[in-house]
Write a structure and sequence with these properties.
single chain, mainly alpha, 31 helices
């Protein structure tokens, strides 16, 4: 028989003293008093019950502190124990909200990728953001997102005291027990979904499985079905077999992941690896919770702990399965790292460590300047032909891409391509730092990058000007007149002024394009490695027949050595030509300013107008504009490459600060090392075997 004390809550002050003596004021114990006073009405519907549960969950997890949450939970348990009618009302609301809910779907789908491919999953999430939420209709995942509206509140579930949670559901009469009936069905469904990915052709190829029958993914559904349908007495044995099958599948997935790390990466396969891992983790949680019903399993806290772990993963996953950012972060990380790695390998070639390398850089950059002068001539010829826009853009693309590829094949250097590659190389090197002594050596790498970049810029600009003037003089003496007429020359000068034109914005945009071309170069190298493109070319029967095995092997080495350069150079040519075309077609203010091409244009303008124009204020402004273009081309592309590479290599703020301090120290003590060539050759560091490690130019000891 209920007493008055059972029926009525005490006054707020007495309630706080009785149920929250250890609860700080910040925990708002009186808010619980107000919530419990709100009894269900005679016609209370599901929406009203859900709103009440939302307020209760928000109160329990407010402040994002597990200590405060445990204190609130203890107060709630004591209050419900002392007032069974309130516990019955709360349990009734919970049952009303969960009524007709499909728990198997909740366990097997919530928080897990729903589509078989990355792009399909991206489209699904994008549509989910644009369209309104459908009615609940028994969708327990949607209810979960309403009760736990952000990942942190869901993660806090796993930190609650399991003993208190078990006492809470004891007081409520275990209203969630019917949900456990969906675990066997969810286990089987998840196992088949995971097995389908694990038995796909490209996965099996990289897992190096001797046969499909011996793959752990083939055995996973059987183990999950046996565990889900086992009697209470057999749960101990089936749980062990199920967890063992999960672990064997996980080991195979790790082997495939390691294979991708050592070769190329497919974004589709990375996505399926993530689907497999998340599916295995869910199977493991469900299996442990189902196995907690075994007779020998301790009742109470252990089962509550397994339930909290599952509930937390469901709540966090329900939030993340709608997030495009989390999808990109979990699936593009490995691809980004491989692209950075391939870009960094290219960047190693742009870093000079010895005087001979420095001189070689100057010479190769000089060759790049000579070719760029010819590219500038072709650029003006194409513009003067007054071709249709699309034909003009195609001709410009061919001009730029052909010039850049020719530079690559002749061993010449274009200075503006260096920053994005050296930024990736620097971040890759930083990822290997393990001690402060190494950090000091890495500051020397930055000095080498800086002086190498200056050498390349000096070589490009130092030769593009005299060669352009020489071409202009040759055109004059041959009777053809200057390359540019007076109007074109004035426009070329005025378009480079940093204040009276949009040169600064265009130069920054060009820096972005330079960085994009380096990303495409790394992606091309990664794709080539993943698809084994060099080996494919060398194994073509008619090539081997015509060229012989030795030349086929040379072709394989050529493709492997140059595929990244081809991808980067062709894409850069297309970008430099197509962005202005897009601007003309749309009316947007889009154009490019490439420092070497702009310098060549200015040189042709000077040759056309003579000394009077060179000594004018407008020409001085154009020279200042060239300097600004150089800074923005180099700075933007380097900053973007370094930022992406730091994130891909997961280099935190602490290491970045240490790097900055080491650089400042180096700059203060040896500022000339950032400008002048090394005085003596720098010996690369070696490992215990005496061999130079990969990326030795990044790990060499400081120059004497």
């Amino acid at each position: 028989m209920s007493t008055d004390a059972d029926r009525d809550l005490p006054a707020p002050k007495e309630f706080a003293q009785r149920y929250g003596p250890n609860v700080p004021r910040s925990a708002r114990i009186l808010a619980l008093h107000k919530l419990l006073q709100t009894g269900p009405g005679p016609d209370e519907g599901r929406d009203t019950a859900l709103a009440w549960l939302q307020r209760l969950a928000a109160w329990l997890l407010a402040g994002r502190s597990s200590e405060l949450a445990d204190l609130r939970l203890a107060a709630l348990v004591r209050a419900l124990r002392d007032h069974p009618h309130l516990a019955a009302a709360a349990a009734g609301r919970l049952r009303a909200v969960l009524e007709d809910g499909r728990s198997a779907r909740l366990f097997a789908s919530t928080g897990l990728p729903a589509k078989p491919g990355l792009f399909a999953e991206t489209s699904r999430r994008l549509v989910g953001h644009l369209l309104p939420e459908p009615p609940l209709d028994g969708d327990l995942a949607q209810i979960l997102t309403l009760l736990f509206p952000d990942p942190r509140s869901g993660a806090l579930l796993a930190e609650l005291d399991p003993t208190q949670v078990d006492e809470l559901f004891e007081a409520l009469g275990h209203p969630l027990e019917p949900l456990a009936e969906g675990i066997p069905e969810a286990l089987l469904l998840l196992a088949h979904r995971v097995a389908a990915h694990g038995l796909s052709d490209d996965f099996l190829e990289r897992a190096i499985e001797p046969s499909i029958a011996r793959s752990p993914f083939a055995a996973l559904p059987r183990a999950c079905e046996a565990h889900g349908g086992a009697s209470a007495e057999a749960l101990d044995g089936t749980l062990g077999a199920c967890l063992e099958a999960v672990e064997r599948c996980r080991d195979t997935a790790k082997r495939v992941h390691a294979h991708l790390e050592s070769t190329g990466v497919s974004i589709d396969l990375v996505y399926r690896l993530q689907v497999i891992e998340s599916g295995l983790a869910r199977i493991e949680r469900l299996a442990r919770l189902h196995g907690a019903a075994a007779p020998r399993a301790e009742a109470g806290a252990p089962r509550a702990r397994a339930a909290l772990d599952l509930a937390s993963s469901l709540a966090v996953g329900a939030q993340q399965e709608r997030s495009l950012r989390s999808l990109a972060r979990s699936n593009v990380q490995l691809l980004s790292r491989k692209i950075v790695e391939h870009s960094g390998e290219t960047g190693d070639h742009y870093i000079t460590s010895t005087r001979a390398e420095y001189v070689k850089m100057l010479a190769s950059a000089g060759g790049g300047g000579v070719l760029t002068a010819g590219t500038t001539v072709a650029k003006f010829w194409i513009a003067g032909a007054k071709l249709p826009l699309l034909i003009e853009a195609a001709a410009s693309s061919l001009n730029y891409a052909g010039s850049f590829v020719t530079m690559q094949l002749m061993g010449f250097t274009l200075a503006t391509k260096q920053p994005s590659a050296t930024g990736a190389a620097l971040a890759k090197a930083l990822g290997k730092i393990r001690s402060s002594g190494q950090l000091t050596a890495w500051s020397q790498v930055v000095a080498r990058i800086t002086r190498s970049q200056l050498a390349a810029a000096a070589g490009n600009l130092g030769l593009v000007v005299p060669v352009a003037l020489g071409i202009d003089l040759l055109l004059r003496t041959s009777g053809g007149g200057p390359l540019l007429d007076e109007e074109q020359s004035r426009y070329a000068i005025d378009s480079l002024h940093p204040l009276s034109s949009a040169t600064l914005a265009y130069a920054a945009l060009t820096g972005v394009l330079l960085w994009l071309s380096s990303v495409i170069a790394g992606a091309a190298q990664n794709w080539s490695a993943y698809r084994r493109l060099p080996e494919s070319f060398a194994s073509i029967s008619w090539i081997r027949k015509l060229a012989g095995d030795a030349r086929a092997a040379k072709l394989q080495a050529f493709v492997e050595r140059n595929i990244a350069g081809f991808g980067g150079n062709v894409s850069l040519g297309l970008l430099l030509a197509m962005v202005p075309l897009f601007g003309k077609l749309t009316g947007l203010p889009l154009d490019v300013r490439h420092v070497t091409l702009s310098t060549g244009s200015l040189a042709f303008a000077a040759g056309s107008l003579g000394w009077s124009a060179v000594l004018s204020p407008e020409f001085a402004g154009a020279i200042v504009g060239i300097g600004c273009i150089a800074l923005l081309n180099f700075g933007v592309s380097f900053a973007l490459a370094l930022w992406v590479a730091l994130r891909a290599e997961e280099i935190g703020r602490t290491k970045r600060r240490r790097l900055l301090m080491a650089l400042l120290t180096k700059l203060r003590r040896e500022p000339l090392d950032f400008i002048r060539p090394p005085r003596e050759p720098a010996a690369p560091a070696s490992d215990d075997t005496g061999r130079a490690p990969p990326g030795a130019s990044l790990e060499a000891t400081p120059d004497p």
